[in-house]
Amino acid sequence: MRKFVSLSTKIMGVLIAFLLFASVSITYLWVNKNNQDYAVQRQTLLDQDQKQFGFIRGLLRARVETWFESFIHFQASYADNIEATALFFESEFDYLQLNWQINNLWLFDNDNKLRFSTTEYTQKYVFADVAKVINSQSSVSHIRCYEDCQQQISMPILSNSGEVVVLSVSSSLLEVLAAVNRSTFAKLAILSANKLASKTLNVQSLKLKPPISLVNKQFMQEILAVLPKTLLLSQMLDSGYRLAVRDNVYLLNLLPIDPHLESSIYLMFVHDISEVSLAHKQYQTQVLVISIIVVVLCIIALFLITWQFRRRLLLVAEQLPLLAQKKYQEFRLRKFTKGRFFVDEIELLQDSATLLSEELELLDGRIEQNTRELENIAMYDRLTNLPNCNMLNYQLKKLLASIKRDSNKLTLMFLDFDRFRKVNDTHGHDVGDAFLINAAQRIHGCLRDSDMLFRYGADEFVVMFLEKSTSEGAPVLATKLIDSFIEPIAVDDLLFYTSSSIGIASTEDASMLVDDLIRQSDMAMYASKDAGGDRYSIFSDVMQKAVLRKVELENEVRDALERGEFSFALQPQVEIASGKLFGFEALIRWFHPERGFIPPDEFIPLIENTENMLKIGYWGLKKAFEILQQLDKLGFDNLKVAVNLSASQFLDPDLLPFLREQVKIFNRDPSQIELELTERTVVIDIEQTLDTMRQLKEMGFIFSIDDFGTGYSSLAYLKQMPVDIIKIDRSFVSGMSDNSADMQIVSSTIAMVQKLGMQVVAEGVETSAQMEMLRGLQCEIGQGYFISRPIPESELYSILPEKLLGGVWDKLDQLHTKS
Prior knowledge:
By secondary structure, this protein is an alpha+beta fold. Helix content is about 55%, strand content about 20%.
């Protein structure tokens, strides 16, 4: 019930959170839109201030220019020449000061020479403005501030004689400021900086400049005093500043007083926006209050609507745990009253739960019955009815726990049949199953009542028993089990002679892991198999070290190629009749930097059918091409190099493209590369093998079959394969002198192979007698220690010139070099 209440609360919480989120989002958007409108109004006010100031200034400038031009021309007698004009201005200067707020006046001729002035000293900027007027023939107006701020207007005037004179007047800004004040309703002040303004200049450091009234000056000084010290001039110029002082709110806009001059003079507009700001705050407060009221009302409504459903859901939630507790009768007794007029989803849920309880009650009965059957299947083998590996693990844990208490020794015997796969492959799995049933019965007949027998899997069986620590019953029982299979196992009319390999592992340590004990007995069993089978082996640390060594070698061989630890030793092959060098068989060698020489039969089985085997194989093929190239440089051409191909490499799809590429790179006759296959490689996938051989044969490569006669399928496929050379295994060659059967095998093999149009290579020639016998049997090629031990490639190129005289191998003696 707690879980259901928590879920209901979570649902309510999610709905309330959604309402809050929606309300906050709408409120935020609403307030943000209002703030944006407020910001737009401020920017509009800033733009209006700039426009009004520019408009009024331009208007007053135009009025001054128009008045002077018309005034002079109406007084025609004063416009004849510059002297008359100067005399006129001198006589009317008092009038101009009184009515037009003219402070000073200068008159220049067309050569920028001062002809009249109302001041004793004329500023340089007056000459600069007059020069601009003369060049442009148009008026120039600037506002400049020194002791006070004045507007300087310079204008060209045409006299009646056609001469152009330039009039420059300075006038007070009072009229401009008054007009701007009337149009914008803002208080105005002119501010200046002590130096040329920069973006990092503080607004508070600006100083007030006249003209300004005393009252207005005090107000502006108060405004500047309360401005933040961090407020920069660039901020004020970009967007103005909103300042709250006591109960009033002001908007401050700052404009350059004359944008055409590089000056630090600014005009500040101070707008009283207290009423607008108050209305803005009241509006935002109303929006927030309305949002809160809406959310509260929605939560109350949601709670009232869902309360009835939540109460009924809680009742259902109290019933459902009864199903998990399998209290089906009590579940059916707890029901709430249904509605008379309509059926809702909760009532449908309760009806469905009732049907579910009936189905669950029926299903529980079936599950109990099936569980008992599954436990039997999980713990017992269906074929032999013996306990399986799951039961073995279970019993092992129990017995290991009892070792310390009873001072016993737990022994595990891992039994596996030798060559059981032939039974399945030859006669099918039905016969194989019958074989295993009879074998299990025979094993069981050798055991004591206290011994436990398990079928571990396939043809693997495990015997487990406890004995006293001083007892040695395991070897006796293992011998008894091995001897029990001297007699064949009968399956219908078939008799199967078999043997078994047994591994024994014991422990007196109660803390030993189950998997470790099984692994030790399995390791000992494989030691028996490696020793030929039909025997038992007891686990020892030597076996553990041997396995660890194999694992280490398997890991190290991955990096051996990159470190350049692999190389070839090349054993010469000579024509027996003439002694002429035929070629070499490339035998791989691994010289480990720490372990020294590692025989191929130690590491090759570990990497067979792995990516590492493919890498070594392709390295060997490329190395054979390089060796032939080096022999050509020494003058020993037309020789052959035989390279052994593993089954995985020969069936690799990249083999054909790789060999094509090497032939192209080395520009080599492919017939000088002899691809050496074993019988296992041939029969593993005969169809693909034959297809690959035909393609390589078309490219020019030659093939040889290694260790001929040791397999069982070569003769069946020999006539189908495009083979060039057959290599007779060394076991037959070494026995020719003493064993007539071996002699007959070698003789018949040579005759048969030659009739098929192939060459014969005899391996393992170790004596001169064997050499003479092979010559008598007309064997073409021989190799072995009598001719030469395998020669490391690093020594081959220096030895060859000494051993070859006219292409003939010297004396066919042994080379005392390490292989």
